[in-house]
């Protein structure tokens, strides 16, 4: 087979594949979740319709800085400093985020965070209708978490087992938070890193445009659409 005939036959073979991908809405990289490659199949239309909740566990930075600050082999302290549990809630429609730091991820702590997140969105005029979490016992089997859900007038929507991509917006936010805050630069102490968290969250909500929101920031999208779900 000459080169021209080979190119023609290769093109003919490729075209049906492209047609199949377009038919299933998978022809663009923007239609897939970056970390998992799973197709993104839904976006809620109004703020408060669905809230994604998750926890990011971070090792605390020892006094004097870890290896990112001091460099490897420069006497980085070996003593384990424990963990910070970064609880985060993401509104599915607007991507507005609420973040708080706790010492654990037990049921009562998750319930306290849910109440804080509900109060945060209530101040913005948004009522939380449903809450999506993974299947951890601190969500599914916690009486405290269930009571907090009832107080907010919300319904719990745990993801199906072994399908973490369903809660993909939380997974993507965890990755963004790690890249742009937790590991964005060396920190001399854990307190210094924690002090940088809320300013970063503010920038994420108010100053960081999202292509999925048509170039709006999360807070701009929420303000423009909040009237359909006010308290």
Q: CATH class, please? A: Alpha Beta
Helix content: 40-55%
Low-confidence stretches: none
Level-2 CATH architecture: 2-Layer Sandwich
In CATH terms, what is the fold-level topology?
Nucleotidyltransferase, domain 5
Strand content: 5-15%
What would you call the structural class?
A: alpha/beta
CATH superfamily: Ribonuclease H-like superfamily/Ribonuclease H
Rough outline = globular
The helix count comes to: 9
Q: Biggest sheet, open or closed, and with what strands and sense?
A: 5 strands, mixed
Instruction: Trace the largest sheet across and list its strands.
Output: 3-2-1-4-5
Taking all Cα atoms into account, the compactness measure Rg is: 22 Å
Q: CA-to-CA gap between the ends?
A: 70 Å
Rounded average pLDDT: 82
Order of helices and strands: HEHEEHEHHEHHHH
E-strand count:
5
Overall number of structural domains: 1
Task: Explain what the structure shows.
- This protein is of the alpha/beta class and 231 residues long.
- The protein has a single domain (51-229), classed as Nucleotidyltransferase, domain 5 (2-Layer Sandwich).
- Helices cover 41% and strands 14% of the residues.
- It has nine helices and five strands; from the N terminus they run H-E-H-E-E-H-E-H-H-E-H-H-H-H.
- It has helices spanning 3-23, 67-70, 107-123, 137-140, 143-152, 168-182, 190-195, 197-206, 218-225, and strands at residues 51-59, 83-91, 97-102, 130-133, 155-158.
- The chain has a five-stranded mixed β-sheet with strand order 3-2-1-4-5, with helices on both faces.
- A hairpin with a 5-residue loop joins strand 2 and strand 3.
- It starts with a helix and ends in a 6-residue tail after the last helix.
- The model has no long low-confidence stretch (mean pLDDT 82).
């Amino acid at each position: 087979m000459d080169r021209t005939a080979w190119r023609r036959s290769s093109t003919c073979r490729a075209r049906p594949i492209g047609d199949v991908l377009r038919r299933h809405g998978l022809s663009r990289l923007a239609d897939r979740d970056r970390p998992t490659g799973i197709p993104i199949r839904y976006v809620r239309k109004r703020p408060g319709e669905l809230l994604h909740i998750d926890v990011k566990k971070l090792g605390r930075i020892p006094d004097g800085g870890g290896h990112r600050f001091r460099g490897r082999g420069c006497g980085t302290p070996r003593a384990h400093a424990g963990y910070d549990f970064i609880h985060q809630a993401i509104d599915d429609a607007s991507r507005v985020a609420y973040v708080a730091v706790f010492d654990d991820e037990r049921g009562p702590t998750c319930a306290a965070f849910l109440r804080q997140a509900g109060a945060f969105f209530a101040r913005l005029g948004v009522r939380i209708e449903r809450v999506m979490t993974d299947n951890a016992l601190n969500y599914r089997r916690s009486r405290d978490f269930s009571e907090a859900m009832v107080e907010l007038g919300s319904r719990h929507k745990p993801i199906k087992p072994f399908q973490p991509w369903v809660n993909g917006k939380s997974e993507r936010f965890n990755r963004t938070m790690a890249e742009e805050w937790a590991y964005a630069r060396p920190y001399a102490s854990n307190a210094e890193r924690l002090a940088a968290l809320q300013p970063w969250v503010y920038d994420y909500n108010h100053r960081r445009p999202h292509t999925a929101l048509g170039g709006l920031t999360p807070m701009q999208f929420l303000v423009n659409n909040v009237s359909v779900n006010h308290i």
